[in-house]
Amino acid sequence: MDCSRRLKFGIIGTGWIAESHVEALKQMPDVDIVAGADLIPGKAEAFFKRYGVENVRLYPSHKEMLEAETDLDAVCVCTYNKTHAECTIDALNKGLHVLLEKPMCVTTQEALDIVRAEKKSGKILSLGFQPRMDENMKMIKKVVDSGELGRIYYIQTGGGRRHGIPGSTFIEEKTAGIGALGDIGCYSLDMVLNAIGYPKPLTVSGYRSNYLGTDPEFNTPEDAARFDVDDFAAAFIRLEGGIILDFRIAWAMHLDTPGDTIIMGTKASLRIPSTECWNGSIGGPMKMYKDVAGLPVEFEFPMYPQTDNGQGIFYKKLRSFIDAIKENGTAPVPSSQILYNQAIIDGIVQSAKAGKEVEIHLEEI
């Protein structure tokens, strides 16, 4: 690392996800965390004290921080979903690089507004999809890019938890906007869409429910009473290139898994074992199925060991963002791709409300 150029970071939002950002940034000798903002009085002060980060200037809102801190290089946006767009656009308009946590936002329009602000600013905006940094995840894209599967025509993906409903701001529409669909569904979509080159989504037929989240016998009575987002979502999505995407995701279900991820091609198919919880890697060794010399055969891919010297995929997410800034590079996880991810999520929401298939229309930027 070139420590002669130190980057000054600000943290917007000091909730749970900000903990991983600060833990990663503290390991980097070329980064200084100099400012933080949170709407809840005293929360930011307690947060930085808990993590031993000193001399951080604190603000009651991101707007006040951005106005006062004239020499920041970048910010991490770690707020709840409903404020992702506002905080990111304001930071870009101030000429700052932004690492925006997932999901990108709540609606397609917000995503378009974010991309417009990014282009106008000329700064780097990267999205918080750390599973991309995992070597086992990277292998999925390598297999697809190798051509071994042939032409991809059908994908099944999703996953989720048998018991895994979060609390806090995750479960109310006024703060989260969307539930499991945005929280872990965006990861599942990115895994397969990134592997096949992020083709444009065309139509969505979607479904959402929250039977378990609102059940006081399944969820805590207090959280069940305020639960008004989805705990399960499913969709049938048509992509450019004649590809069908069959998707399902759950925070809670009376099942161990809604199914493995399957990528079907004209020459071979790939099975990717599901995980109990989206922890950044795959659930076990992948298998490829194909015919060789007229016989059906299976190939199992060995799992890459997690040999990262304590610097996991979250660290790599932050490091790749910082390196892109210092090297005048490009975003490790570009908004141009995650715009499609967000359009699918919003399409599922709109289709579920309408009770029918909807077309996805994306304005030119």
Automatic annotation (TrEMBL):
The keyword Oxidoreductase applies. Residues 7-129 form the Gfo/Idh/MocA-like oxidoreductase N-terminal domain. The keyword Oxidoreductase applies. Signal peptide: none annotated. One of its GO terms (molecular function) is oxidoreductase activity. Keywords: Oxidoreductase. Residues 139-271 form the GFO/IDH/MocA-like oxidoreductase domain. This is Oxidoreductase. It comes from Eisenbergiella tayi.
